[in-house]
Write a structure and sequence with these properties.
The chain is an alpha+beta fold. The protein has three helices and eleven strands; from the N terminus they run βαββββββββββαα. The protein has two domains: about 140 residues, Tumour Suppressor Smad4 (Sandwich), CATH 2.60.200.20; about 30 residues, no CATH class.
Length: about 170
């Protein structure tokens, strides 16, 4: 069984905002779909109701990107990451207008529809000037016995005191 985990790393501030400020996102299900948030704010923060996805409708994407530009880089259904039964990863453009750049391969927008996704490939969503840039990583999944990592707090405190020969007032117990 393959114990590698797949991760998207945000390489720009806009990409990081898509992860709610996190630097990376672990991909846990495939296909993993990415597209534009269809709600577009108007002046004074009012959102266009006509474009909102109804709550009863299942989402089209696993990750939504908010593209604030007048000329949009991101399509509502832009690209997806797929994983084959053999463990290979692929990027498939979902008919986006501006395409998807994977490494040096331009997908969609008249080019090929998909390509193999390799570790450390960058993914630029839309035009080469798009602010949405990610890196794909594969990492070995580490399995640890949590009892070795997190002993109960009493024994951990006692071990620290004995290791450092701390007096009670130095160990924060007074």
């Amino acid at each position: 069984m393959d114990r590698r985990i797949s991760v998207l790393v945000a390489l720009t501030g806009e990409a990081r905002l898509a992860f709610s400020g996190a630097a990376e996102l672990r991909l846990t299900s495939f296909p993993f779909r990415v597209g534009r948030e269809s709600r577009s704010p108007l002046e004074a923060g009012v959102v266009v109701d006509s474009e909102r996805r109804r709550q009863a409708v299942a989402p089209n994407n696993d990750l939504y990107l908010w593209d604030p530009g007048r000329l949009l880089n991101v399509s509502r259904e832009h690209f997806q990451i797929e994983r084959s039964d053999s463990g290979e990863f692929f990027v498939r453009d979902r008919g986006s207008t501006c395409g998807t750049l994977v490494g040096n391969v331009r997908l969609g927008a008249g080019g090929p529809e998909s390509c193999v996704l390799l570790p450390d490939n960058t993914i630029v969503v839309g035009t080469p000037q798009s602010p949405f840039v990610f890196r794909f990583e594969l990492r070995e999944e580490l399995h640890r016995d949590l009892t070795d990592v997190r002993p109960d707090s009493t024994s951990a405190r006692e071990k620290a005191k004995s290791t450092w020969n701390l007096k009670p007032e130095e160990s924060g117990e007074i």
